[in-house]
Write a structure and sequence with these properties.
This is Decaheme c-type cytochrome, DmsE family. The chain is of the alpha+beta class. It is built from 26 helices and 16 strands. Strands 1, 6, 7, 8, 9 and 10 form a six-stranded antiparallel β-sheet that branches. The longest helix is centred in the last third of the chain and has 16 residues.
Length: about 650
């Protein structure tokens, strides 16, 4: 690619040579072979292009955590610590599972197994690691891609605490966890990486969660500055004008405070991992653009936690949430020097260790007065304790402490306090204690919502927290939607999708069907709504209509694994065993970690009398999910009839 860091005069004379003399004859980005996204996140270019002109910021940004947030595993920098044989190992006692990760010829590999009563490895699952999530400053999470394009998280993580250690990834601490089947959804990817080039509409709720083989590597320039294609086209125009070039890209520092910090808060303001923000109806995961109000993209929710009050809660992503609880924030809000993310952080540069003490001290002293000893004046009138010349204000007033949701790492607490307590207590090991949500609230009362929309956001947050099973919330949501529908106030299909999911979870098939139909009237191509409608028809007794609906869905979305699986269930129910196996085959080949599909195959093979094939399918289900419901019980009689060693199935 031609270097962009050249004068405007060079562009004027260069274009005729490229055949671009006639305005609009050729897209200049195509002429320079600069790819531009065109799907759900249109108008983005490779972030490396920015470095051609902004080399200083580009180079320093590569050392910032955001710049290293997501990388290909192949050839990635190896920061982990391995045993002498080159393998990293961890035994998870609650689930009685062994984990291994190693690097071979620049490629990462993962293995999980258990030991049976004879001490032999069983339930062995092995895969190549495709992507690494996390900068490595605090941790790394490992992902693999299925043949159908799903990204799955692996249970083992690397943490840099205490010189580095292998431990379970967040959410995997207890015995019963998602194992190798935890899907990386577009909502997750939207904050952990630059936007991928996926089809328009595929980032909406209820659509298949698949990704292309090639993905961006790391959060880049355009996450804060907006899509760069228009900026480059203005730069490449026949008569480039400085103001037009500047106007074609967002410079966050020129934005009003609310829009400026909306960029940061879009990913870093997460009051609770138990109840996450709700996207506004009609908004896709990759639809936010710098410069727009954040409240038009998502509604920020908070919780009342029965286990801790607000001041005691400290999650890994609590930077602005804790900052806003600080007197330094509340007492400067509305002033010219109001505290915010950029008061201390330059997003383009990581402050070198040698400079940090003075850097943060100068920021603090820009507001706080000092006495004759050059120490801060205390409100009590007492002299400030002596401070080591290399000490930082943050060491005592914004200490590093262990996070409650990711218990194997520590983070800076952004709630500025006079006395946060003994530092040794703040970093001490702890047991994971998930939030127990007593109520869902709005983080800010004014987020551009009507009272009905605000109530709906809280109800939906509560339903998601309970896996859609909390009947009182579902009843309230149904009544609210009925009232809003009568007033023409229901926006989008998403509320109907939530009600459909809740109705199915509670076996209210009549309600599920009505809600699905209403959602489909707004979004007729939504895959999950179509799937839920087919399920509601089938489970309510109209099996023929349910089957036809599911067949239509599979024809429209052939890689939608859950629809293909459910259609196979319908076919098995009708006694069409071979047709069911044919329907399952693409799942077993492409979405190979779908253990319910392997269990269904085993049941069909057993019914057909092919017990060896059934045994192998059951074993594959156990390799994927050792606690897969009913698999062990259904396998044991087949195992016994085959004369296989019963101890091989026993996990002590």
């Amino acid at each position: 690619m031609r270097c962009l860091a050249i004068t405007f005069l060079s562009f004027v004379f260069a274009f005729p040579a490229l055949g671009l003399a006639e305005a609009g004859a050729v897209d200049p980005l195509a002429a320079f072979e600069i790819p531009v996204t065109s799907g759900a996140a249109a108008g983005y270019v490779p972030d490396a292009v920015c470095g051609e002109c902004h080399s200083d910021k580009w180079e320093s940004f590569q050392q910032v955590g955001m710049g290293k947030s997501f990388v290909k595993a192949d050839g990635a920098e190896v920061i982990e610590r391995f045993d002498e044989d080159g393998v990293g190992r961890f035994y998870h006692e609650p689930s009685n599972r062994h984990y291994e990760l190693w690097v071979d010829d620049g490629r990462y590999y993962f293995r999980r197994y258990q030991l049976n009563a004879k001490g032999q490895r069983t339930h062995v699952f092995e895969t190549r690691v495709d992507w690494i999530l996390g900068s490595g400053h605090h941790s790394r999470i490992y992902l693999y891609r299925t043949g159908s394009g799903e990204l799955m998280q692996l249970p083992l993580s690397w943490y840099t605490l205490q010189g580095g250690l292998w431990e379970m990834a967040p959410g995997y601490e207890e015995a019963d966890h998602l194992g190798v089947n935890r899907q990386v959804r577009h909502r997750c990817m939207a904050c952990h990486n630059a936007f991928p080039d996926v089809p328009k509409g595929s980032d909406l709720e209820g659509m298949p969660q698949t990704y292309p083989v090639d993905l961006p590597e790391g959060i880049g320039c355009q996450r804060c500055h907006g899509p760069g294609a228009a900026h480059l086209r203005a730069l490449y125009s026949e008569a480039p004008e400085t103001e037009a070039i500047k106007a074609a890209i967002v410079n966050p520092i020129d934005l009003p405070r609310q829009e400026l910090y909306g960029i940061c808060y879009g990913c870093h303001m997460q009051p609770s991992v138990a109840v996450t923000p709700e996207l506004r109806p009609g908004r896709g995961a990759y639809s936010f653009r710098p410069g727009e109000p954040l409240q038009g993209y998502k509604t920020l929710l908070d919780i009342r936690d029965e286990t801790r009050n607000q001041s005691q809660r400290f999650d890994i992503n609590h930077h602005p949430y804790r900052m806003e609880q600080s007197a330094c924030f509340t007492q400067t809000l509305g002033q010219e020097n109001a505290l915010g993310c950029l008061t201390c952080h330059d997003p383009h540069r990581k402050v070198p260790v040698a400079e940090r003490a003075d850097h943060y001290r100068q920021i603090c002293l820009s507001c706080h007065e000092v006495d004759a000893r050059d120490l801060p004046v205390m409100a009590s009138g007492e002299p400030h304790p002596d401070v080591d010349p290399q000490g930082q204000c943050t060491s005592c007033h914004m200490p590093t402490r262990r996070t409650q949701d990711v218990i194997h790492t520590t983070m800076t607490d952004h709630r500025i306090q006079r006395d946060p307590g003994p530092l040794s207590v703040l970093v001490a090991p702890m047991r994971k204690r998930p939030a127990k949500v007593a109520a869902v609230t709005l983080l800010y009362p004014d987020q551009g919502l009507t009272p009905q929309e605000a109530e709906m956001a809280k109800l939906i947050g509560g339903l998601r927290y309970t896996s859609y099973k909390y009947a009182p919330a579902a009843k309230q949501l149904k009544a609210l939607l009925r009232q809003m529908e009568a007033e023409g106030a229901v926006r989008g299909f998403e509320p109907w999708l939530v009600l459909t999911r809740s109705a199915l979870a509670q076996q209210r098939y009549d309600l599920a069907l009505v809600a699905a139909e209403k959602g489909l009237s707004v979004a007729p191509d939504n895959a999950m709504l179509l799937q839920q409608r087919a399920m509601a028809l089938f489970l309510s007794g109209d099996k023929a209509a349910g089957r036809r609906a599911m067949e239509d869905l599979v024809a429209r979305y052939p890689d939608f694994a859950i629809a293909r699986y459910n259609l196979a269930v319908f076919l098995q129910d009708a006694g069409e065993q071979q047709a069911a196996l044919t329907m399952l085959a693409p799942i077993l080949n492409q979405s190979e970690v779908n253990w319910p599909a392997w269990r269904l195959k085993a049941r069909i093979e057993a019914a057909r009398g092919d017990e060896p094939a059934a045994i192998e399918a059951y074993l594959q289900a156990l390799r994927i999910a050792p606690l897969a419901p009913k698999v062990q019980d259904e396998l044991e009689p087949l195992w016994s009839r085959a004369g296989r060693d019963p101890e091989a199935l026993v996990i002590p």
